[in-house]
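Researcher: I'm preparing a figure for a lab meeting and need a structural model of a single chain. I don't have an experimental structure, so a prediction will have to do for now. The sequence is pasted below. Please return the structure as tokens so I can convert it later.
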Amino acid sequence: MKSITRFALATSLALLGALPVFAAPAFAAPVAPADPRDPKDAWIWLEDLDGKRAMDWVAAHNATTEKRLEADPRYKTFYDEALAIYGAKDRIPAPMFLNGRIYNFWQDEQHLRGVLRRTSLEDYRGAQPKWETVLDIDALGKAEGKSWVYKGADCLEPEQRLCLVSLSDGGEDAVEVREFDLATGAFIKDGFHIPRAKQGVAWEDADHLLVATEWTPGEVTESLYPYVIKRVTRGRPLSEAVEIYRGQKSDVGSFPAVMHDGQGNSLTLISRGIDFFHQQSLIVGSDGKVHELAIPQKVSVAGLVSGRVVFRLDEAWGDLPSGAVASAPLDAVRAHPEAIRATLAWAPGPKEALDGISATKDRLLLSVLDNVNGRLLSLAPKSDGGWTTASLPLPDKLALNFGSADSRSNLTFASAEGFTTPDTLYLVDAASGTAQPVKSLPARFDAKGLVVEQREAKSTDGTAIPYFLVHRKDIPLDGSTPVLLNAYGGFQSSSTPYYATIQGKLWMERGGAFAVANIRGGGEFGPEWHEAALKTKRQVAYDDFASVARDMIGRKITSPRRLGIIGGSNGGLLMGVEMTEFPELYNAVVIQVPLLDMIRISKIAAGASWQGEYGDVYADPEARKFWLKTSPYHALRKDVKYPEPYIFTTTRDDRVGPQHARKFAARMEELGLPFYFYENTEGGHGSGADIRQSAKTAALWVTYLSRKLMGPDGE
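Model: Understood. Here is the structure written out token by token.
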């Protein structure tokens, strides 16, 4: 089953995460011309992604940062420790049920770009599985002279032998799609091949694909996503593909999907993203015609289970409450898409929120947050159209997540982890309700003496904001503890506990504490928690974060001198706002792959797609007024004492774009303000394209934090 929550575009954006086997692509944006409605922008030339002048600027600032930080005696130790974590042989190999076997994608020092490999379930459960390599990405890249990064595979149901493999050059979201045969371990000569683009591809049957891509130059939305879907026939050129659906250029994008259940039923779906959170859902009937589903625009089709269509409700639908899960018979949905009668499958309690939806052969699986702690549910279909619900027996007070589920049985993998609790992987029988531990991650850092607390801070409007704090139990309450505070606060994405290996080994082992704030804008307490910080209401999220900082300072857990903050993507925007609005609270700010120019956001990479989250500064005067005041790039002032930030981005980030980070650093330089800047030339919207790049990324920012927060007087 493939879930298409918040329309299929959500699968292609890391801001919300991706499907287990897919990662859809995105374009690198061309330089946008200056807009007369924008304030004068002296640094717009840095938006020229690969231009010589811009790349010379990047190289010069990279060299300065490397010289400063790599000369620190701690850097080499941090790098070695991070590399050991990323490349450890005793990591849990993430399993995936596929083609009657267990598959895994693996990276280490010998396989920097990774190998797709397989074994049996019985062998996987053993201490030393005997893996068979199916596809070697390092060897493929070397043979073809490309910096290939594996972006997943989508396999034809029900046999799961023929797969569409997505390959990215350097880690960007844009991918090339090729047909691969798992049985032979080779790409199929003259098989399906879709050139590099931002695209969504789905198997219709063995000889047909549904493809959303840039069919002709410029045939993409303002967000640079596809909106035209065509049927591609095996053995025929792409030029002969037949159009089946066309969205609008003003949309975010349109994507196809074909859902399957364990009983052999299927449903072909098209999701037209009006904005990031509102969509039009359509199905392709047996007559080949496209029919709109009569459901609210924030209700999405989340899967197909036992002949029932499963819906995720991010708004109320008649008597069905927001945040709930509902279902309707597949036959009825097909027969009367204009009059769907869905029944409730699950509804959240006062502090509960839906986190994810999956399925086995005939069980609906829900991962749920209860006051930001995990719970896993298995729902069995009843003959009257309802469901019976059972909680699965996994540890509480931890983050619990479903992994790969088997469509041929009721087996699924699930994981449990916490800030100081290493991951344990369970094999779950969703029908019998049993869970057996299969593998456990060895401790990556010394957690002796560490405690995990869940606290609350009062925000400026009186709202209670939960946060997790991991620290030594004997810390003095004199403000001397270095604390690193993280949050995300956007796109209804929840920040839950996780085994913090890098923070634990490189930071907490050396006396630092780590905190995660569950600010508004996220999904920790359902759609309403997200909507409270949408668009021009976003200031509450920034106030929430500052309130958590003040709470820790007020309790003398830390002090502004010892408090650092870190966040990426939308969290990078959060860091930029915190730095410019509340500079007195922090002594270190790590800004990663960020959004920072909120006036030209729609002109950079895929920024136009997020206007449902941030507002449209060109169409809405109130949004423009808000962001002219709040946008970090525009808020910088010469006469303010800001913490010296560490700004990180990647050239191949074709989702957010490195332009934001570049321009912010250049503006600081113009004002005579100190900063660190580093741009990795690969890696996409992440830390690096391989484990060495990721280790360097971690070592740089931890060295920076150590210099700022752990020395007696800072740098």
